[in-house]
Design a protein that fits this description.
The structure is a homotetramer of 358-residue chains. By secondary structure, chain A is an alpha/beta fold. Helices cover 32% and strands 18% of the residues of chain A.
Chain lengths: 358, 358, 358, 358
């Protein structure tokens, strides 16, 4: 069984740590470097005691071990860095000859202007936008196989795109007026010393945030437009609102859209059928049986996304629902799925066992 | 200072208990009877030890003390009973000469058919539907003053109607296509011995429920239609989806609607202005300053509802947000506000002090 | 009804905010100054939106308004400052002629050495240690009445001293070998931008901390020794271990001690009798009936402390249990009780209504 | 790689489900029967949607498939049944020729009278008490290898016995006066339709229960006595108090004991040394470095138990602390470890990957 060497740049944030967690059980992966600027010299398990005896690798800083060395000694480097940093680091890694999966927003867009407007940054390597593949295996599996750079999707985009794609691709729903109302657990905000994310501020709290112009909105729009057949990425403008809820991991999207004339005979059963048929061969997309609703607790710790849909005939709206782990299918575990596709491993390798039970 | 005698029928459910809690600090109210069929003979504080030394009244059953006696000896009876039960009990109480505030769905509708379809019940006293006043003081203050029967609004309807009314009344938003995506804390499900509401099933859980045809949807539609000027209660059909989140008390609504031509110059500022102006004299409706979002923790334990709105020019949607305590403004404390209006007490009596802090 | 002017120095920490919350409903108190160095110029309700429309006072810094002015214009100043700061500020306030209730550890000890060892600080005004009264009304009511400086007890000490005192005073338990195993909600750690208190680090977490030499241990020892009749404050050395649990407010102590020969006929009933009799006239100490255990949820938001005790005849241990709100009887609301004693108000003024229900 | 057939009797309670979860990733185990009387005919994943696509086995009732058949067709049967039921079922399974790991209290005791007094039941097969092996591999590994019946330890006993054993075995602590103050997450109460375990009753709650005479107390005493060298199981009588805390999984024990004369030179370092040395070859017992405290979040979902100890020289108490997952090392995953020992698999098979991360 062949194995690859994987390094994780920025391994002590929540996404980084979940990457370490996921890969630590992957039979075809061995860690080369786990980097951390803040905690260099410490063991990974000093920062996350949950991993004591499991992952005791020493953290290195990229001052000690350069990106060039990391890239040369690794088959795959996964970057879990802030946007604006990734755009500078990833080209160095690619130049060193490794393949890269990046978690920031820096390589997710095809349209440079949309990126620059959304992130309020100039992009130092716009030529890579074209080359990067959007790392959503269910949609871009073939392109991922041979890519050198995969841009891991945002969490909100993943749980928005998966349920909407089958309908947009088939022209069954209007491109106009889509609403995505979504809720994230607190790990979505990252590992931060901020009062607003303290236990006392968030326990028994629930609120919307980023109600206009959240960055993930433009990423959602571009990808949904592609699925709807618009190569320019402009056809769909969804209204998106994220909320923050008092749980640690998990994300739920409630989506509202309207059937087109081509779907005039829409019923709840037919909505489910469309989803079921489209994803029948996808291991990690679970279309729930009629009457069962997605719940974040049921995907917690896994790479699954649970989806379903209903039709509200009183109002004419199709409602779609999806639940995923924001650090799982929404981030780190999806990257492992993408890694498996990139390196020709069976797609569920290291992901086949559900990681949380009761 | 004159006082009234208040009885609470069904005082040991969560709404009943919050009524007891709220009224226990009301300077112009004394309790006459607190009823419970299940716990008769025990002290109220045996069931809720939090009230030991505060409310130690003995619970009576309505077999011991008839509705007739309760009604005759009370100025006001508040019923916190299941729908289908209230419709039989309330007429007996009214016949005994007291005034009533009812918490069920049985007297909230003007249209009998809508009620019967929504609750799948025949109504034994349809004549009372006309007589009953919808107990939302901000909209029906004048009618409440002299009514003998107030139907306390549902929790989801309250937090939907309050933010939408100023726009519907002024014709500023389309009646079509309104979406209400809302989330409740677990007390909203009542005090029940059900596995689905157990700690282990709901901790770290988040999910939609009642995704098509939830009862509160028709109540919302009828009231919004009235506000939109349709006396028939048919003009507005909102798409409504409730969710259940892992906190005890609180409810948040995220509402999507579109400006009419009359509101062609819509901006976020103007949305806020409409809300601010409409509710400028309302003590319990707090229109938040620009950039501050409603959070259930900030209304927890109080009769406040916090609201705001933004305009998303990319999509043309107005987004409105409201947060209330589902047992507060969404149920028991709103009933106290209504009681104050009915009996001519200053409207904030017993409600003027915020009941939770940090 | 006479009223007093109260200022709160350090009003935006959790203890400060709960003081503001509690006093905002006190009919005989009006706020003079609410200070905050960090948020000066803002409204109190900008920092805590839960208080919008309730407490909108503008925060002042003590650079703008000196301690001398605050002291001169207030009847009572409550300081919610870190230890080591209070010891410098309180003398200035006393010199200005006001009375003071302090929340730090700086005036809680009679023995200077114990303080200095526990807090690793020199005390700039050791002469005030003698003058200060330990602000536990159940034990020091008479001394509190006329004092100018009350040192509000620590949260862990309060819930340790209340249940143990009746037994120590009567010589019914051994002074040796007392164990206090206690658990606090997260507000006990204060309002801090620290990763260790973030939601993601504390949700689904439970752990001991400060397992040897926690500061409150020496405070507990000194007070228990006094109750045991040792004026030197040395007779009792309890083993104390605090834990941190994933709830916002509340504290529970589980205490283990052994009966003396004088209590050879100990039974569970007799343990309860001792507690009941000792506290029969105390409004805020609720001795629970046999078989009912204290629960932090039942004291949340209130000034109550719920206590009980059992006797384990297999091991010969008496077990005592107490629950209080760490910000309530454990801090801010106890200070209001002390204020009422100091100014001759009925002791439950502003505290008579339970502040949380269901 | 040889595999065995495993059946789980009572597979839909929380312990049963965690057994299914754990074994579903075990490379040398295949499921034969998963039984449920309540849910027979449904798929396991209908009851626990988290397992959809992972464990879709159909549940059978023991009316359809007799214990005789289950026992004959399985190499190992794991019973997750109530006490008093196991004592009748296990003998039937053993008679059919399989090996059994039982989760009830029915086979954990050597002393029949202690069992009968603790569980208030007559034992129909007292002869099996002698034959059964206490399924704690760290203490009884050799006996487990060849046993036909292993009694899986209680959760509280496991986290009490592991930290105390090294000291009791070596005579380093007094047998008298040991105190075990422990806290469990809510899954410890089982999957029950009871109001007292509802979300609304337990959120923001913390309380002791079973404060005198909890069943696990006698199990702890018997085992600790054996470790202390008393074959009668009477020498140690610990004072034990369990508490219930608002998290789903996890258990923490805080233990107080006194050094004997043989340990007169006790220090915190030496306490740690004793633990470290005793467990140096144990994969699942992690002795934490000085200053790091056990936290339930760090063992959640795993078979690890994290332990440490300190010495409080002011009081002369040694304090020991342990954290485990009550369903992990405290129940189902410990049974998998025991299964591995029984069948000669490497002990960490199926348990080697940590099952929860961030």
């Amino acid at each position: 069984m062949n194995t690859i060497k994987v390094s994780i740049v920025g391994s002590t944030g929540y996404v980084g740590a979940e990457l370490v967690h996921g890969f630590s059980g992957h039979p075809q992966v061995e860690f080369k470097y786990l980097t951390s600027e803040t905690f260099k010299g410490k063991k990974f398990s000093d920062i996350y005691p949950v991993f004591r005896g499991v992952v005791d690798n020493t953290l290195v800083s990229t001052e000690e071990v350069s990106y060039d060395v990391i890239g040369k000694e690794s088959d795959l480097v996964i970057t879990a860095l802030p946007h604006g940093v990734s755009s500078k680091v990833v080209p160095q890694l690619l130049a060193a000859g490794c393949r890269v999966i990046d978690h920031s927003g820096d390589f997710r867009y095809k349209d440079l202007k949309t990126y620059e407007k959304s992130y309020k940054l100039d992009h130092p390597h716009p030529e890579l936008l074209e080359q990067a593949v959007y790392g959503l295996p269910e949609l871009y599996r073939e392109q991922i196989k041979d890519c050198s750079l995969a841009a891991n999707p945002g969490c909100y985009p993943t749980c928005s795109i998966i349920p909407l794609t089958p309908f947009l691709k088939a022209g069954l729903i209007e491109k106009e007026g889509i609403i995505i109302d979504a809720t994230s657990g607190v790990t979505g905000a990252g590992r931060k010393e901020k009062l607003e994310y303290s236990f006392c501020e968030l326990d028994e709290s629930f609120k919307p945030y980023g109600t206009v112009g959240h960055r993930h909105n433009t990423e959602i729009n571009e990808q949904l437009s592609f699925q709807a057949g618009d190569g320019e990425g402009k056809a769909v403008k969804a209204a998106f609102t994220p909320h923050l809820a008092p749980f640690k991991r998990g994300m739920l999207a409630s989506i509202y859209c309207r059937p087109t004339a081509a779907f005039a005979d829409v019923t709840g059963e037919k909505v489910l059928e469309v989803l079921t048929k489209y994803y029948e061969n996808e291991k990690f997309v679970r279309v729930l049986p009629k009457g069962v609703m997605p719940d974040v607790k049921n995907v917690n710790g896994s790479n699954y996304i649970d989806i379903t849909g209903v039709y509200d005939e009183d109002t004419g709206y199709i409602k779609l629902f999806s639940a995923q782990d924001n650090l799982g299918k929404g981030a780190a575990l999806q990257a492992i799925q993408t890694c498996n596709v990139m390196f020709g491993f069976p797609e569920e390798t290291g992901l086949g066992t559900l990681t949380r039970g009761v």
